[in-house]
């Protein structure tokens, strides 16, 4: 994790994310890319080209000044920090910036949403998770430590998630963490005990050539996958939830939803998503 992107909106949540990214950067000899996206109003965009250009420059300079003040943190001492300002708030651009700079992690602070506000407005966190091709670490509060020791990895144990599983396990075990696997059994996709164990066994044999991790695998019954993951994480006192995302967009996302986005949005624990 040598290059870490932190979307900045100057809130306390982005401060938490920036501090977390700073700790991870120090641990890995990495650098932080602080990204702010301007939200230019329709009024600015509909003005004449010269007037629009002048006002856009004004907002850009204002953002740069505020950036300089926001990045004046003691915890950033000794870390290479690159401020990046984009003119428009387009969340797919976070992934584009990550690709342009060969970043390998996005750290994002989020307060989460619930109820009708989530349906109509959505959350910035969900949008970044949906578009990102690299892992996204979502945090809700200032972390006491980034030494994650008890990580829960939630999966449907499908063949397409094998590569992501191997990537996640290598990352967390490299940090000294114990990885706990969980399969959530729901009424809509019910499997009996033998079927669940066989599914996980086949997956592990394909991914690692053995079934040693069955000792660290739990089978949880709940009404939804999201509830099962979060309840089990609390039960085993996990300090991080890791989950794969398919990154569905558009109408498929609206009707089917995304478990990873919901978990990232509603969990109080840190959540790291991996794109399949």
Q: What descriptors fit this protein?
A:
single chain; 276 residues; alpha/beta; Rossmann fold; 2 domains; 10-stranded mixed beta sheet; 20% strand; elongated; Rossmann-like_a/b/a_fold
- Provide the CATH architecture of the largest domain: 3-Layer(aba) Sandwich
Compute the separation of the termini in Å.
Answer: 19 Å
What's the CATH C level of the largest domain?
Alpha Beta
Assign the CATH superfamily of the largest domain: HUPs
**Total of helices:** 11
Largest sheet descriptor: 10 strands, mixed
The name CATH uses for the topology of the largest domain is Rossmann fold
- Ranges with pLDDT <50 over ≥5 residues? 114-122, 250-257
- Portion of residues in helices? 40-55%
Give the arrangement of secondary structure elements.
Blueprint: E1 3-7, H1 12-28, E2 31-37, H2 42-45, H3 49-70, E3 81-86, H4 92-100, E4 105-109, H5 116-121, H6 124-131, E5 136-139, E6 150-154, H7 162-174, E7 178-185, H8 193-208, E8 217-221, H9 225-235, E9 240-245, H10 250-256, H11 259-266, E10 271-275
Parallel strand pairs: 1-2, 1-4, 2-3, 4-5, 6-7, 6-9, 7-8, 9-10
Antiparallel strand pairs: 5-10
Helix pairs in contact: 6-11, 7-8, 9-11
């Amino acid at each position: 994790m040598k290059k870490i992107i932190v979307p900045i909106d100057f809130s306390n949540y982005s401060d938490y994310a920036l501090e977390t990214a700073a700790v991870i950067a120090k641990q890995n000899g990495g650098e932080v890319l602080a990204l702010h996206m301007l939200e230019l109003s329709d009024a600015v965009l509909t003005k004449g080209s010269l007037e629009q250009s002048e006002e856009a420059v004004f907002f850009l300079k204002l953002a740069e000044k505020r950036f300089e003040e926001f990045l004046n943190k003691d915890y950033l001492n000794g870390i290479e920090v690159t401020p990046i300002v984009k003119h428009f708030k387009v969340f797919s651009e976070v992934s584009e910036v990550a690709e342009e700079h060969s970043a390998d992690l996005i750290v994002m602070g989020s307060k989460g949403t619930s109820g009708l506000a989530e349906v109509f407005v959505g959350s910035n966190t969900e949008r970044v998770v949906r578009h990102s091709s690299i892992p996204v670490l979502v945090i809700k509060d200032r972390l006491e430590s980034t030494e994650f020791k008890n990580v829960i990895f939630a999966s449907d144990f499908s063949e397409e998630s094998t590569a992501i599983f191997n990537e996640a396990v290598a990352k967390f075990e490299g940090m000294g963490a114990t990885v706990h696997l969980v399969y959530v059994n729901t009424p809509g996709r019910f499997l009996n005990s033998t079927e669940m164990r066989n599914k996980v066994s086949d997956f592990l044999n394909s991914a690692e050539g053995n079934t040693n991790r069955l000792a660290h695998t739990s089978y949880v019954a709940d009404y939804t996958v999201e509830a099962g993951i979060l309840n089990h994480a609390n039960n085993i006192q996990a300090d991080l939830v890791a989950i794969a995302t398919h990154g569905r967009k558009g109408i498929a996302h609206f009707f089917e939803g995304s478990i990873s986005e919901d978990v990232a949005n509603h969990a109080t624990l840190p959540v790291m998503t991996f794109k399949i």
